[in-house]
């Protein structure tokens, strides 16, 4: 197996009864890459991501994440990944510091590590005055940045981000992406789903899902060229119009 | 172990920050224990009585004054027309009508025999039944008095009489509070153990934080223990608080050892926490969990022997009380608090509860899945 591969999926499929949410997708993600996972609502992005994170059992197909098999080595995968879900998932009734400490703690990090890195992170996020405030008092943009920081606090190999910038203002989105770049620079592979086509341009490679299948995969430049489009927006519209499945 | 420490720390912080939980833990027991025992009293008082007196004699007045002096009855009206009394019943002003026929005194004196008629308003079954019973025994009593008055030489009394005296063991004054308070305490502990715990877990499902936990290496049993231990402790705290209240307000001091009560409660909580966990695995939001809990609580309370005696239920209902953990704890509480039973007396209850704990928790753990 190639050591430079962080995620590998082969004909990965998930069915819910008669409905095939993810229909035999195959792709590889290189280590340190920022991989954009695009698709309309209901295309199957979240389901695919949940299978890779070990939250959902695949119906068929093969996949490895960080070199571990999704069927058998589920728990080892969890040790090596970070995950930020579509729903905000920090505890609103805990403070910024308590959230960091809790998530770092359940990943088995030492007190010394937690203490040192918490101080560093709070400084990075300019949350000095908010560190002891309840998370629910923070504005959405800050919450999202904090959630991302918590997802990579334990220094995972791969981080999965499910529409991390939904509902966030453009300035904060820009800041968010600069954090993603920093993470990628430090060697973390980033697997990100998004609706924003300008964000797709920031990715090293993108895949576009339509009706549970991957219809296009390549660098943004390659995709624009092969679809004869000016922007990723155009590429996406050309593909998404073919969709039979209605958005949910 | 370290993981569990972090989970418990988080859980306790959240519990103490949630004003709703604090209210449920401290205020609900106070209100329930201070108000409910007074309402849940089986002694029927204030029975409204209408007397229809067609006789207006010394004996009839004597009888009526004896009845009203008993303290159980309130004389609603005193008329000489049955229709008028029936009207009072129809308007729900009277529960009982006592009709004293004309010639009551004359018959009693001359023929040694007189009839009385009691009409009962049976809309409130308990009140009507007990009221008629009380009235009957007062009349019998009166009958005996009249008889002794006439028989000059009691030694030659031709009538044999059986006098019954009863003494109530373990609760000499038949104080209903002694009986109800331990039972209400059990309900409180059950609410905290089963339902607060289930709501708490379902809440994490609803917000989505459970998914974040499921994607970490936290083991299933650690997560579950992290949820159960805080509520296990809270349940025992509520019990302690309740026993203190029972002592302050009603002077109820358990005849048996507190150790027995808490020993059994510790096991009982394991069982009901298992139930709470089970509810949370079968529901997806707090609303569902709440409705399911509500339904179960109703069944548990009505089939627990708290308000009604299990022995007088039909066979199938008695069978259901056997699978109702609440009924065991109520039984144990009453045994220990009133009778002073020790560990040896509650061994069968303890074993049954262990069975409940094992079955419910195993079921819940098997059904709880980190991966869908």
Description:
The complex is a heterodimer of chains A (248) and B (372). Chain A is built from 9 helices and 10 strands. Chain A has 248 residues and is an alpha/beta fold. In chain A, the strands form 2 sheets. Chain A has a 6-stranded mixed β-sheet, sandwiched between helices. In chain A, helix 6 (170-185) links the parallel strand 7 (158-162) and strand 8. Chain B has 372 residues and is α/β, with parallel strands linked by helices. Chain B has 2 domains: 2-40 and 172-367, no CATH class; 47-156, 3-Layer(aba) Sandwich (abc type-2 transporter like fold). The longest helix of chain B is centred in the middle third of the chain and has 32 residues, at 176-207. The relative contact order of chain B is 0.11.
Task: Produce a short descriptive summary.
Chain A is built from nine helices and ten strands. Chain A has helices at 45-52, 74-80, 96-106, 111-124, 140-151, 170-185, 197-202, 220-226, 232-240; strands at 5-16, 19-30, 34-39, 60-65, 68-69, 81-84, 158-162, 189-194, 205-210, 213-218. Chain B contains 14 helices and four strands.
Please give the order of strands in the largest beta sheet of chain B. 2-1-3-4
Question: What's the N-to-C terminus distance of chain A?
Answer: 38 Å
Question: The CATH topology of chain A is what?
Answer: Rossmann fold
Give the topology string of chain A: H per helix, E per strand. Answer: EEEHEEHEHHHEHEHEEHH
- Got a strand count of chain A? 10
| Mean residue pLDDT of chain A | 90
């Amino acid at each position: 197996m190639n050591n430079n591969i962080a995620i590998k999926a082969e004909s990965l499929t998930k069915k819910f009864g008669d409905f095939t949410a993810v229909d035999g997708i195959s792709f590889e993600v290189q280590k340190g890459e920022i991989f954009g996972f695009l698709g309309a609502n209901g295309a199957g992005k979240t389901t695919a991501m949940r299978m890779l994170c070990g939250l959902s059992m695949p119906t068929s197909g093969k996949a490895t994440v960080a070199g571990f098999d999704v069927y058998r080595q589920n728990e080892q995968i969890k040790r090596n990944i970070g995950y930020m879900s579509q729903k905000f998932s920090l505890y609103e009734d805990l403070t910024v510091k308590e959230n960091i400490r809790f998530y770092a703690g359940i990943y088995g990090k030492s007190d010394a590590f937690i203490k040192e890195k918490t101080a560093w992170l709070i400084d990075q996020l300019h949350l000095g005055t908010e560190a002891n405030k309840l998370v629910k008092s923070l504005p959405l943009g800050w919450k999202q940045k904090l959630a991302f920081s918590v997802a990579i606090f334990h220094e995972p190999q791969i981080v999965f981000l499910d529409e991390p910038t939904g509902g966030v203002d453009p300035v904060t989105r820009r800041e968010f992406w600069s954090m993603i770049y920093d993470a990628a620079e430090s060697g973390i592979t980033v697997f990100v789903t998004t609706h924003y086509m300008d964000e797709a341009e920031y990715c090293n490679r993108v895949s576009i899902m339509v009706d549970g299948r991957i219809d296009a995969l390549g660098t943004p430049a390659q995709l624009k060229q092969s679809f004869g489009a000016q922007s990723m927006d155009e590429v996406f519209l050309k593909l998404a119009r073919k969709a039979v499945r209605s958005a949910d | 172990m370290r993981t569990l420490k972090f989970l418990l720390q988080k859980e306790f912080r959240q519990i103490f920050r949630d004003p709703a939980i604090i209210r449920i833990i401290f205020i609900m027991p106070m209100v329930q224990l201070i108000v409910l025992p007074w309402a849940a009293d089986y002694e029927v008082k204030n029975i409204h009585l209408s007397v229809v007196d067609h006789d207006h004699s010394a004996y009839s007045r004597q009888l009526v004054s004896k009845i009203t002096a008993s303290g159980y009855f309130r004389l609603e009206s005193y008329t000489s027309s049955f229709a008028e009394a029936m009207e009072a019943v129809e308007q729900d002003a009277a529960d009982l009508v006592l009709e004293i026929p004309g010639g009551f005194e004359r018959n009693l004196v001359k023929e040694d025999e007189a009839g009385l008629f009691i009409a009962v308003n049976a809309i409130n079954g308990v009140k009507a039944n007990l009221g008629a019973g009380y009235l009957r025994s007062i009349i019998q009593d009166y009958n005996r008095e009249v008889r002794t008055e006439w028989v000059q030489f009691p030694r030659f009394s031709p009538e044999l009489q059986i006098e019954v005296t009863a003494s109530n063991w373990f609760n000499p004054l038949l104080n209903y509070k002694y009986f109800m308070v331990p039972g209400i305490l059990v309900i409180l502990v059950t609410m905290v153990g089963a339902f607060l715990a289930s709501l708490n877990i379902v809440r994490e499902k609803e917000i989505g934080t459970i998914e974040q936990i499921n994607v970490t290496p936290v083991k299933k049993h650690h997560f579950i223990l992290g949820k159960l231990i805080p509520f296990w402790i809270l349940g025992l705290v509520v019990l302690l608080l309740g026993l203190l209240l029972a002592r302050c307000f009603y002077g109820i001091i358990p005849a048996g050892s507190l150790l027995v009560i808490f020993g059994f409660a510790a096991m009982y909580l394991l069982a009901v926490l298992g139930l709470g966990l089970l509810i949370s695995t079968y529901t997806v939001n707090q609303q569902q969990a709440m409705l399911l809990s509500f339904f179960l609580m109703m069944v548990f309370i009505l089939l627990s022997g708290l308000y009604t005696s299990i022995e007088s239920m039909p066979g199938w209902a008695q069978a259901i009380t056997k699978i109702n953990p609440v009924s065991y704890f109520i039984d144990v509480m009453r045994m220990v608090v009133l009778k002073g039973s020790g560990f040896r007396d509650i061994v069968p209850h303890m074993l049954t509860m262990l069975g409940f704990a094992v079955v419910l928790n195993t079921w819940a753990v098997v059904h709880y899945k980190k991966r869908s």
